[in-house]
Amino acid sequence: MDLDVFVTAHRPEWDRLDHLLRRGRSLTGAEADELVALYQRTATHLSLIQSSTPDPILTARLTQLVARARSTVTGTRRSTWRDAVRFLTAGFPAAVYRSRNWWIPTAVLSTLLAAIIGWWIGTHPEVQSSIAAPEELRQLTRPGGEYETYYSSHPAASFAAQVWTNNAQAAAMCLTLGAFLCIPVILILFVNVLNVGVGIGLMSSAGRLDVFLGLILPHGLLELTAVFVAAGTGLRLGWTVIDPGPLSRRTALAQQGRAAIGMAIGLALVLFVSGVIEGFVTPSGLPTWARITIGIAAELAFLAYVYVLGGRAARTGDTGDVETADRSAEVPAAA
Questions:
Q1: Cα–Cα distance between 151 and 215 in angstroms, integer?
Q2: For position 319, what pLDDT does the model report?
Q3: Residue 6 CB: number of other CB atoms within 10 A?
Q4: pLDDT in tens, 66-82
Q5: CA neighbours within 13 Å on the CB side: how many for 17?
Q6: Which of 214, 211, 201, 213 minimizes the C-alpha distance to 143?
Q7: CA–CA separation, 261 and 78 (whole Å)
Q8: What pLDDT, in 10s, does the model give residues 251-305?
């Protein structure tokens, strides 16, 4: 495409669109219809220029022009409580449900890897000695040792807040760093799996695996599920970079990225619940069976929330993406 000829042919339309936008609310009905038509044509022009002969200055001008026109055509919309309710009852669970083919295998493989690491450490004394000195290991695993006192080392409220902040940051990193070809997500996930595996191995070697599971299961079921969901979604985002499917890579990444941001907000709420359990239930004086029952109940409630509300919303077409009116303008792709 000859860029100079293209610009000469269509500049009057762009100038006319700019003129109509400057008129604001004083447009007649015919002029408003003209503005919409010019907006659509200019969006197509922008797509053609970006795909064939990208010119930074011209692209910047048309991008700004299309954005202004879209704002005028669609108007602005303020978020309301109805948006929050819709997000919690449809958007977020639908996004989790639709990504289940990513986070369920992630959860299964991670759990198996943690079990293998735990077995390897627990059955190989030489591996244990490479982790820490024998006296240090005894301090970790003995009754009243560091593995047990960790959950009561700080006041419950501050401990819950600290745990929630750390876990929410890890989940957000999985969701946002997935675009880097999945590699950061795999590293973050492996660190979490390794920590669990080391705990299993050391406590089982000391004959206290039941104590360790009694401490980690009440909050760990929900907490690790949230981490697996974040990791699976991050991996899905990274795979979109490699294989965007029928959409353009930019459009596919935008859709997955918007859904991932929503997931970060939703998972922060889920991790808040697990943090409360970890801060107030795990170190409590409740019997082990009661603490584990609370953890199982929280996990089952989350899964029901995802599969009932999320499945229903997904079947009606909800993807977890923002409303159409809140999305950036998507221009047609050049053939």
A1: 8
A2: 77
A3: 16
A4: 888 887 777 655 556 78
A5: 27
A6: 211
A7: 18
A8: 777 777 777 888 888 999 999 999 999 999 999 889 999 999 999 999 999 999 9
